[in-house]
Each structure stands twice: as C-alpha cells, then as structure tokens.
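Protocol step 6 of 9: fold each sequence in the batch and record its structure tokens directly after the sequence line. For illustration, a two-sequence batch is reproduced in full.

Sequence one:
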Amino acid sequence: MSGQSPEAVVFWGCLFGADYVLGVCLALASALFYAVAAAITKRLKDLPAHLIVLIQMVVGVLVLAPFVDFSRVDTAEGAWTLIIFDQGPSLF
C-alpha cells in the first residue's frame, strides 16, 4: 500500500482518511443525542415550551463549558456593550 497515510481507512473498497471517519462518528453521536433529547422533551408535556428551551440551553452551556478556551476570549473593554447597544449604520 504505497502512498497511503497510516491513518487511512479502507471501507467498502474506498479509501477514507481519519478525519472522515471521525466526522461520521460525530454525526452518528449527534443523531443519537438529538433522539434522546426529543424523547425526553416529548415526555415533558406539562411544562411550557419556553421552560423546556431554557433547560436545554442551560444543559448545553454546562456540557460545552469545559471545551471553551477562556484564555483566547477577547476581553476588550466595552466590546459587549458595542454588540448590544450599537445601532449600526442608519438608513435615515
């Protein structure tokens, strides 16, 4: 097998790189987690929709927080106020 990288995977006679296989695995995992979230949400019929969305957002923030590199976050003073209060170019 000359010319193939050691990370290449042969599947059904086709050559795939490690990134491709990782992407397929991540897509399958996301489909599984979506199905679990949909099944849980379906059982929560008594809760208002906005509360279900709030719970899902909080869980998502807590799950993804360990992967954030806070040393690379831009901490320019006033940056968030510009996003919130900046009106942008006016047409009038």
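Sequence two, same batch, same settings:
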Amino acid sequence: MRTNLACLRALGLSLTLACSAAFPVASVYAQDESGLARIERTKTLRIGVISGAIPYFSKNLGSGAWSGFGPDFAKSLGDSLGAKVAYVETTWGNAVLDLQSNKIDVMFGMAPTPARRDMLNFSDNLFNNTYTTVCKQGYPYKDWKQLNDPAVRIAVDVGSSHDNFATAKLPQASVSRLENSGAATMALQAGKVDCQILVVLLAQPLLSKRPDIGTLHIPEPVLSAPVSIGMQKEADPGLTNAVNHWIAQEKQSGQIKQVILDNMEKLAGVKADAFPKNVQF
C-alpha cells in the first residue's frame, strides 16, 4: 500500500511539473500583464464588433469580413501598435463586461458616461455625434428650449444616450421611453409622438432609407454626444496613452472625419454633402 501511495504521489508531482513546464507563465500574464504589454507580446489587437450596428460595424454574412467605422479605425490603430486585428463579436450591452473580463482590448463607439468611467478606461474624444430631432412632416423647427415643454411629445430608446440627453435637457417635455430605436421610430410614424431624438449618424441613414418618416432638425444650440474608445480599467496608462497618441495623429491628418464620411456613404448611402453644415465631427 505504501508503495502504491508513493507511486501516486510521484505521478501527481510529475503531472504538476509537466503542466508547469507546458504553461510556465500563463497565470502570471493573466494576472499582471498590462493591456499594452499583452498586445505587444501577442501582436494582436482584439476589438469588439457588433453585427448589424451600421455604420459602426457591418458583417458580410457570406465572407465573414467586417467593415464600418470600428474595423477601419481598428486597422489603423493596430498598424500603429504593430498588431493584427482580431474581431470578437459582442453587443452594446455586453461590451463593458467583455472589456472587464479581458475578452477584448478596445471597443470603438462607446459614450464615456460617468457610470462607465467607474468601470472602464476611456480614450480622449474620438469624434462628436450631433444630437438631432427627426420630427413628423410639417412640424415646425424648435430649439432645445422650445422643445422642453409638456406639449411636446418626444420618443427615445430607453437607457440610451438619447434617453440620458432627454432626461438632462428636456425634463419638462412629454418623453416616451421605448424599448429600442426602432420602436421610437414606429411611434413617430404612427403619430404618437412629435419628434424622435437621434444622433446624426443614426438619423441620416434612417431618413436616407425612409425620407417619408419626417424631417431632420438640428436644434440650437448645437449639442453633441462625445464618442470614445473603451478599454479595460487598469492602473498602467500605456494602452490609453498609445490610443490617445493615435487619435491625435488621425485627427491632425483628417482621417477620423474621412473614415466616418466614407462609411456613411458606403454602408448607409449618405453622401458627405447630405450633412447639414453645422454638424461637426
């Protein structure tokens, strides 16, 4: 019996040593490696992508290829870091968790809300997405102050940046908070509301496909939602600094705006001259 126990102990020790030899530093990497160090080691930049989230992300179901703002920005950022891009499918709702659990390195198109800043690191502003109203045909132009009235019926998708904006800027308006943007648009079509709040990069594609839905207004003063890049929250500033350096270079060269305009035309059928002159990216 003692001999058998000794053999079992020896076998267990051998297996432990063998596993340690096969995976010598995996646990160390998982616990201590910074985001930038992991990208530099693996030469891979993992980005979150969302099927159907045009113009941010679009997946070709035949080839599996990704296009849109996110993939184009990711390719450029990956080149600056000496890394290839790996696409990891997610949703807007799961992106925060995927960053926190180290499934992805960056998520393009995120709004840096105070609640999200408690959970993630964010880059400098990537671009601005102007708030608009899409109002029923014949509805007169109104500025934000005039829209802040109980007689004005507004639709937003609940929990979105549109919802947060309406809560902050239009507390007196009659706001219907519906399950998604499509439901808010249906309420507008049915005459249940006067206007839907949408950022311009969603409003323009909607009206390009369905011009009968309503009229685009950009109320004064022009207000925008900042759009940034979300990253895992960590003390090491290396990845955030590298991303911010890339953003500064791309803005200076005009590439941020060009990527937006190119994808709006390619994926949403919206040409550059369709944007109102007071829209700034």
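Proceed to step 7 once all outputs are recorded. Observation for sequence two: DSSP finds twelve helices and twelve strands in the chain.
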